[in-house]
Design brief:
Layout: H1 11-22, H2 36-48, H3 59-65, H4 67-70, E1 72-76, H5 83-89, H6 94-100, E2 114-118, H7 132-145, E3 150-156, E4 162-168, E5 173-178, H8 188-205, E6 208-209, E7 212-213, H9 214-220, E8 221-226, H10 231-238, H11 245-255, H12 283-292, H13 312-322, E9 328-333, E10 338-340, H14 351-362, E11 366-367, H15 378-386, E12 390-394, H16 407-424
Parallel strand pairs: 5-8, 5-9, 9-12, 10-11
Antiparallel strand pairs: 1-2, 3-4, 4-8, 6-7, 10-12
Helix pairs in contact: 8-16, 14-16
């Protein structure tokens, strides 16, 4: 994790502020600016935890603060411990502890055993900018709180970051959802992660999500989710990456395209290749169109690369799809509040019918992809390769990156899509 101090800015500062707020040391909302209030909160946190109170978030401080990002602690059971006592101590619930420790008999807790104790707050934040570091912590937290959510990885990025995979459900229907193909569309990551958290919670308490019993959804479908396809460049957009070789190289690419604001206009991966123009679905047509528009070299957006599947992030998605038997995919993007459903002349069976259902539960119209966006995308390749339903969901409205103030509205519109896509697959 990055060492942060007075004057630091960006999404990792927001994560630190979130941890301090959850720990009870910061009253104001995270703003991504490490100023006097954050300094004061951090030094108080450090003193309370026996850390040198220097106001610098280094490795020791981050290690102590990470419980408030992962949302759980590991408790070593002592004589007399009960779930009720632990729930009181950690301000949580007995049910949450039972869910996190399915193999433990709560009436016979072995002294010295390690218990996962979820802390008493919702895990996935919906009011801060995201970074790779935050996603890594949330993945750890979700799979600790809800051990029936499986954690994996589909591969690594240009910079070596993991493309995390979360899977939930035991049904025969297999579906695949992904977000943040485009870096400045990172708000799709918390949409997907909040869905996993809400779904897992409702399943654990016997509740419903999107109007469907969570247990029915769980038994009907297996949902695989890669919440952040493009973490290197998300870090660039949200300010977690602001120096070093990769930053300098990206800045050089951006300087060749001065009409695109930097870094907020960045969609591509960190190598300047648009990942949603990397798939073998009339890629040559996409190249012809983008080159005609002037996108001929690595750029913040629209550069198709030198050939299909040259970038590891796209290759990993491609290979992961080939290695599974998905009956439907959702690719999450922003903006437009629209669902795109066809590719060229392909119209897979039931794709229009399912699309109409997704439209009805979201209020997003079902439309054909505009010509300038019609080739070499992941949804395009999936439809072409499998003749099965695939959808690009363009959520929200405005200029990317969309503000987090839109999150509640976006999530409300999309939770039905995420549920019904799996039910109808």
């Amino acid at each position: 994790m990055t060492v942060l101090r007075i004057g630091s800015t960006g999404s990792e500062v927001e994560a630190l502020q979130l941890a301090l707020k959850r720990a009870g040391f910061l009253s104001s909302a995270p703003d991504g600016i490490f100023g006097p209030k954050t300094f004061g909160a951090l030094t108080a946190f450090q003193r309370a935890n026996g850390i040198r109170a220097d106001g610098v978030a280094g490795p020791v401080t981050w290690k102590t603060a990470e419980n408030f990002l992962t949302g759980y602690v590991t408790h070593t059971a002592a004589k007399g411990d009960t779930y009720y006592k632990l729930a009181e101590k950690y301000n949580t619930t007995v049910r949450a502890i039972k869910t996190a420790n399915p193999s433990v008999d709560p009436l016979n807790i072995a002294i010295g055993s390690k218990l996962i104790v979820p802390l008493g707050f919702d895990l996935v934040p919906t009011d801060i900018s995201y970074s790779y570091m935050l996603v890594e912590q949330l993945v750890r937290g979700l799979t600790a709180r809800y051990p029936f959510v499986a954690r994996g990885s589909i591969g690594r990025t240009v910079m070596g970051k993991e493309q995390f995979l979360l899977t939930i459900g035991s049904g025969n229907k297999q579906v695949f959802y992904n977000g943040a193909f485009h870096a400045n569309e990172w708000i799709t990551t918390p949409v997907l992660m909040k869905f996993i958290e809400e779904y897992a919670y409702q399943y654990s308490v016997g509740g419903a999500i999107g109007g469907v019993r969570a247990s029915d959804l769980y038994s009907e479908a297996s949902i695989s989710i890669v919440p952040m396809v493009n973490p290197d460049a998300v870090d660039l957009v949200t300010g977690a990456l602001k120096s070093g070789t990769y930053y300098a190289r990206a800045k050089g690419y951006a300087d060749n395209y001065p009409d695109v604001p930097f870094p907020s206009g960045w969609k591509a991966n960190i190598a300047g290749v648009d990942l949603n123009l990397q798939f073998p679905a009339m890629w040559e047509k996409a190249k012809e169109m983008k080159f005609a528009d002037g996108w001929t070299t690595p750029a913040p957006r629209e550069f198709v690369g030198t050939a299909p599947l040259t970038q590891p992030e796209a290759v990993n998605v491609y290979n992961y799809t080939l290695s599974n038997d998905f009956s439907l995919i959702l690719a999450y993007h922003t903006q437009g509040s629209i669902i795109y459903w066809k590719f060229a002349d392909y119209e897979p069976p039931r794709s229009r019918e399912i699309g109409d259902i997704l439209s009805s539960v979201s209020g997003y119209p079902l439309e054909l992809t505009p010509p300038q966006q019609s080739y070499a995308g992941y949804k395009d390749w999936f439809i072409q390769n499998y003749n099965l339903p695939g959808y690009t969901v363009e959520c929200g409205a405005g200029v990317n990156p969309l503000p987090v103030s839109q999150f509640d509205q976006i999530y409300s519109a999309n939770v039905g899509i995420l549920v019904m896509a799996a039910i109808e697959a």
